[in-house]
Prior knowledge:
By secondary structure, the protein is mainly alpha-helical. Helix content is about 60%, strand content about 10%.
Amino acid sequence: xxxxxxxxxxxxLFLYIIAQFYPIMSIEMNGLSNSAHIASGIVGLADHDFxxxxxxxxxxxxxxxxxxxxxxxxxxxxxxxxxxxxxxxRIFRSSERLRAWAMLDVFLLGALVALTKLHNLAQIDIGIxxxxxxxxxxxxxxxxxxxxxxxxxxxxxxxxxxxxxxxDRNGWISCHTCELLQKISKPHTSYNCSCTRCGAALHTRxxxxxxxxxxxxxxxxxxxxxxxxxxxxxxxxxxxxDPSTIMGGVIELFNGNDWPLALIVFTASIVFPLLKxxxxxxxxxxxxxxxxxxxxxxxxxxxxxEFVGRWSIIDxxxxxxxxxxxxxxxxxxxxxxxxxxAFGAVVVLTMxxxxxxxxxxxxxxxxxxxx
Length: 371
């Protein structure tokens, strides 16, 4: 139902504009007040020389969601109007690749955590931008429900009917992006080979998958330690304040009787990154050992790792919002810490590691033994 999906995409675009241009929340304390937009956190992080985190928030909270909404709206609009644009497949491919990196839903949860942290410190008012953000997240969720990606790909470029199925596995390959099964001329060399439908690079197996994933996982494990030792932010009120680590923020939420949010932050910011790293290590070791045990379970584990990785970035959004919002001079100020930099790097490394790992390697040992 492209017309229904198009309606949700247009709604999401309209709500996205509202969420970006209206303040998410405002703070008032001892006669001083301030408000924060989604982009305010980027400016706040950049002002404190955390350019890496500012670029990260810009990418996942503004650029990636905007491009995905615009791309999907354009593709669905062209299909609805039957406008034959030559760039539809490439635009749709780019939007699909950015799905995991468009994190407005995670940003919304980060805004809730920021509100909870400040409700005992000052008067906090929720702005129009917050409700616009909540509604755009709902619109995007509805879009995903009504959005049949395979049907859209088939409408953009119908697949060629294959005769004599099943084909010889050595002469056929499936595209990672659009899932089109197609014939390749050189089965054992996938370099310089592109999908005939979406133009994505085709690989029988991702090149250097294990070595790249090992490098990213080891770097993530190294940075995981300072990410949890060093403070992610410091809230100073009337000249007093203590640096707060990730675990310190969780304990603060528990002490404030906000245990549901504390549990969410603990799971997303502490448990998920560590389990992702350990899970990837287990998958890589099992592949290198040519294990045939629990093949389906290991594939499910990889899909879980791939799904939960994006939710670990909550603390970065909290730090960005608080840094931008709480700038009340000597009365109250929030400073980001080095722990936020390390934690942001851990999130990016774990997401890149899950993308670089090729789950087809899990089944290679069973295939060889069957042969």
